[in-house]
Amino acid sequence: MSLITPFESALTERTDLEELYKHFHRHPELSMQEERTAKRIEQELRALGLQPQRIGGGVVAVIENGDGPVVLTRADFDALPVTEDTGLEYSSEADGVMHACGHDFHTTALIGAARDLVDDRDSWSGTVIALFQPGEETAEGAAAMVADGLADAVPAPDVALAQHVMPAKAGHIGTAVGPILSQGDSVRVTIHGKGSHGSMPHLAIDPVVIASSIVVRLQSIVGREVPPNEFSVVTVGAINSGTKSNIIPDSAQLLLNLRHYEPAVRDRVVASLERIVRAECAAGGCEKDPEIEFYDQFPLTTNDEDPTRVVTDAFIAEFGEEKVGTQVPVTASEDFSRIPDALGAPYTYWTVGGFEEPDGAPANHSPFFAPVLQPTLDVMVQAQITAVRAFVGK
Amino acid sequence: MSLITPFESALTERTDLEELYKHFHRHPELSMQEERTAKRIEQELRALGLQPQRIGGGVVAVIENGDGPVVLTRADFDALPVTEDTGLEYSSEADGVMHACGHDFHTTALIGAARDLVDDRDSWSGTVIALFQPGEETAEGAAAMVADGLADAVPAPDVALAQHVMPAKAGHIGTAVGPILSQGDSVRVTIHGKGSHGSMPHLAIDPVVIASSIVVRLQSIVGREVPPNEFSVVTVGAINSGTKSNIIPDSAQLLLNLRHYEPAVRDRVVASLERIVRAECAAGGCEKDPEIEFYDQFPLTTNDEDPTRVVTDAFIAEFGEEKVGTQVPVTASEDFSRIPDALGAPYTYWTVGGFEEPDGAPANHSPFFAPVLQPTLDVMVQAQITAVRAFVGK
Amino acid sequence: MSLITPFESALTERTDLEELYKHFHRHPELSMQEERTAKRIEQELRALGLQPQRIGGGVVAVIENGDGPVVLTRADFDALPVTEDTGLEYSSEADGVMHACGHDFHTTALIGAARDLVDDRDSWSGTVIALFQPGEETAEGAAAMVADGLADAVPAPDVALAQHVMPAKAGHIGTAVGPILSQGDSVRVTIHGKGSHGSMPHLAIDPVVIASSIVVRLQSIVGREVPPNEFSVVTVGAINSGTKSNIIPDSAQLLLNLRHYEPAVRDRVVASLERIVRAECAAGGCEKDPEIEFYDQFPLTTNDEDPTRVVTDAFIAEFGEEKVGTQVPVTASEDFSRIPDALGAPYTYWTVGGFEEPDGAPANHSPFFAPVLQPTLDVMVQAQITAVRAFVGK
Amino acid sequence: MSLITPFESALTERTDLEELYKHFHRHPELSMQEERTAKRIEQELRALGLQPQRIGGGVVAVIENGDGPVVLTRADFDALPVTEDTGLEYSSEADGVMHACGHDFHTTALIGAARDLVDDRDSWSGTVIALFQPGEETAEGAAAMVADGLADAVPAPDVALAQHVMPAKAGHIGTAVGPILSQGDSVRVTIHGKGSHGSMPHLAIDPVVIASSIVVRLQSIVGREVPPNEFSVVTVGAINSGTKSNIIPDSAQLLLNLRHYEPAVRDRVVASLERIVRAECAAGGCEKDPEIEFYDQFPLTTNDEDPTRVVTDAFIAEFGEEKVGTQVPVTASEDFSRIPDALGAPYTYWTVGGFEEPDGAPANHSPFFAPVLQPTLDVMVQAQITAVRAFVGK
Description:
The structure is a homotetramer.
Chain A (H helix, E strand, L loop, with lengths): L3 H23 L8 H13 L5 E3 L2 E8 L4 E7 L26 H17 L6 E8 L7 H7 L2 H4 L5 E11 L3 E3 L2 E4 L1 E10 L3 E2 L9 H12 L1 H6 L6 E10 L5 E2 L2 E10 L2 H21 L7 E8 L2 E3 L1 H15 L4 E3 L11 H6 L3 E9 L20 H17 L2
Parallel strand pairs in A: 3-4, 3-5, 5-16, 6-15
Antiparallel strand pairs in A: 1-2, 2-4, 6-16, 7-14, 8-12, 8-13, 9-11, 10-12
Protein name (chains A, B, C, D): Hippurate hydrolase
EC number (chains A, B, C, D): 3.5.1.32
Enzyme class (chains A, B, C, D): hydrolase
């Protein structure tokens, strides 16, 4: 009655969360189109007796439990336009879409934590805001929730929390004070050449040559213009022009991604990028200026010192010193910080490893990205609970 | 009573052919998928009392009219994956497909000529093979008709004829003895890199950079490796890699088009192309070799002297000296010659201009390619008739 | 007594001219610095009883011999900044200077012809102007002689002649009506970057990267902008920037060479060159504009029809049909035509082969360029004589 | 009598050192050719009653003063192949050679410190080794002194010291524990093409295009292959090929400079560099392999903790806290550490600013590099004295 029940119940709960995780993994949805996922989250929250609200495409449930701090904890739930190639039994069933960044872990873990908090209200006091965010990959979701009235829909939090699964040792947690995720920009460059038959290049302004020259010329920015001890990433993630061998197309498109920790470095890189794109179009003889559009812009994620120390101490107490380390600043970006920034709360963001052999493991966004189900899920659920209880626990 | 009738009939015939042309222009079909066009051609031929045969996707009708030479005359009828931007009232109604190379003129003119030959059997003697060919743009159609038994389906021709509309002065005709259209190759290059998150370039083998470097490096072939007085075109008609700014893709694809008049020059260019592609993949650290596949290979088109002189003299007699000139060898290619080569016949191929102001006119394959309906169509019909009658006329 | 004398005299003359050739080959002098060579030419002419004049660094002797046409025949006598690597017994004794273009043959042959004309005045009637020109390689010499009063110093010629040794079969002669040598331009491009310590690239504007990018980008001109059936050469003969690995230099210099047969093509290439240089400097962030200076500009050489036919017929009569062919237009340039153009005379320019195995023979300007002494020299002497006598012979 | 004397003497001493500095600045000598400078240093040391020894091109004087620690302090004295453009009254009088890195300050300061230590032996006890090193710029000097028996010529030091003038605020001092100067490599790349006349590119293997393509392709190493949070510099300091516009040269040479803090990153960059050079030569069709030679290799400079703290505390006591800061790791390299490493001593290396307006000041190795004479020299002399006395002072 006493010992056996929780044991069985815990086992059941664990299996149930694993099934929920597999469900999310099988049914990924692209950013800002996550209707089915959002509905399932609402259904799970309602099953706990909570009253989920849809805000800006996301889902929020407030768990009130007497006096005490207000803690917001956020999980993201969108997937990527990647064709899964993991060979997992529970692989994506959606064509060309995959949870290749592990947001299915985040969402499942937050549902698991909500169950724990609702099940055991005696051991804590305060308010927990379980926030499920759409569209992280495109930097749209956090802004959409803020724009849709998040501040009016929930009490003002005292602190905000978030976590992310990473290609590190499974079950190990990384925390850090200060900059932890880079500032990110996406840039769409459209080059206007002039098409022609492939056999008459002298009548064309060849956008394939111009676009390729831009890609090649951009390579010198990081190595020549950025101070060697500064962080800068300039990736051309896509180059697309033309469909047939013997038609010189009219235009070309590049999609770029920039990552920085220092605004001054970012500003110099943006200026260099614009200068090079315009100059290469001039070199190619373009008669019309290129278009350079910024989109999917991610803020810098900088953990506040106080909540980071509270959470780190709680993790060490829960998981042991050998499982908790310092997360070096990573190259990726997040839009999470827009939420605490809009609500005026300090925040901390930590990472959880998901790989038995992290060396050479496929990185986030790879079609082969496959964190081991356990202990990853257990640790992410428990880390979520531990971090929240570090503020509202009795 | 006498003069008026033919006049009206000619006018009616002219309007009818114009409508037929507009019909073809409105309903373009991609190479080797021209089912609707082929059916319409058959219907037009049957209306003349002929018995069209479907061979290799094309349509052939033999017009027998007593003793005399056997003349094959060919029109092609496929269109291109181009989105029409001419603003013409009779613009393409097919999404992303357009008669951007003018094959609708060729086909309409040959139907017009067939009508004339059938209507006026007294003035000529011999056999005319009206051959409508599919899939010229992909170099598939002529070979397909030959493979499907063309030689058995028609009498052996004594001569073969073909014409093409060009960005030259409307109604002017160009002929030439010897090489008139280049040999052509299409090449598909697939580069195998290694994908990664856009913020982790050091874990990737970036196919965007490698593909761009190949495009840039290929530019030196024509200017450095081809003797300066030799003809060579190396066009990269398409470069495609990646779909999102923050995902470094796994691979990239290039589609190239080569044009030559000299086999030795072509061989050197092909060797250089392969050398550069492999070396640039090595420079980029590729772990897997690139694939280099040749497709859509066009033969050299070299007009035979005798039929060319016969046709040229007939054109001068019909249209006047000021309308007939020498066509300089053009950069484009054709698969027409595969048909006379397979049937053992000499051939000649001429061009007809379609523009009031040829300078700066959009070239074939441009989304803006729009020859004026008249006098282009009239002259192409009459040129077709004149050339055939030069051999079978009484 | 009678037959033997001329034979021995001819043998002596031949040996003597071979020694003279070897002397010139051993003592090459750079363009417009050919003092020693000019003096030796004067000495040889004076030995014939002629009165050589120094004009614009060159030497001219007028051989008057009664009534008849006035024929100017020209040989150039400058050498190149090339370090000879032929292994010839009579290799250059001047450090880093070599007769790598064969002007020593031209000069020796013209001296040989002068000897013949002076020795045998009975067989011809008219005036022969033996013109020895300096500074052909830098396009300075012909202009210098014209500027220094050539027109006043010699009678107006009725025709002008010149010849050049080539990597073709030894003793074979090539003639052609119309364009035979290309128009040539040299261009000096100076790029102004900003130097820095090699470890601080972000403080520099790196001229090495900019200059290299220009070279790479220029490669697309011939293959993309020039019509594929037009002749165009864009060579970067020199790129120079920096002296130490760890100092980023302040500037870079490129030396380019352009060759064309069509002024319109040349104009487009020059415009593209200027556009690319300026745009690449902009891409690299240069704060100061590049300098683009034209120098060593060679005119087009186009043989006039009448003198070419006269000379060709005379060559066939002298050497046999199998030794005289049509010279295809070559890629090189000459300033010879400036002289007949200034004097208002038609002209013809022919080539003489100098190699037993022309395939793979080192081309003019190579450190390995070594035409065989005989029959090359004999044929060039005799061609000179034959061509002159075709106009003034009795 | 008492106060005035030291004042005047100090003034005299100051003026004298300023003159000595100007002397060194006026007479710079290239690395390992510093005969005149070495002689002047010996003369100065002998004037103090010391017995300088010449070792490996450098000069060493041991100042013994009773029991106590043995402190080695080192100044370098070579200059650079840079043409001075500072406009200073005491500008270099040597053609194309300049103290563009400030070693004249280091040497003058160490002579000043030696004077102080010799003049005032009562206030300290121990042994000071004043070491003047040649050839720092080429990484030859420290190794040469070690190879020439430095260890046998001086007592084993307990600590080693060195300082460098920098483009920072004049008189400000920077210290740091751990890595402070990068590891450096120089690389000479020789590309073997095939020369030809500039108008016959198809007969050449163009080394100008190949060398330029290498430079362009190398630009992707830092931005694509090095992790974005790692330090890496890949500079091409020189590209040289060809001398004339119309001769395609036979070969090209590149001089590269690499800087790293992590051996694993350096190893990857070296591998990438070799891969790219070889692949680009293959792309260009080279028939002979390129040569890749390493030279001027600098070790990593990593300050030991204990001496750095001792020296930093002494600087704060002497100059005040506002004048002493943490030096961030700089991009440059030094061979200083070879000396303490060979002698088994811990070491520290600090920097001194030399500019009133450090923002935008010309960096070391610039032809405009001109630290202000004062307070730079005073502070460097005093820093030298302070650091030594921190170990041997009473």
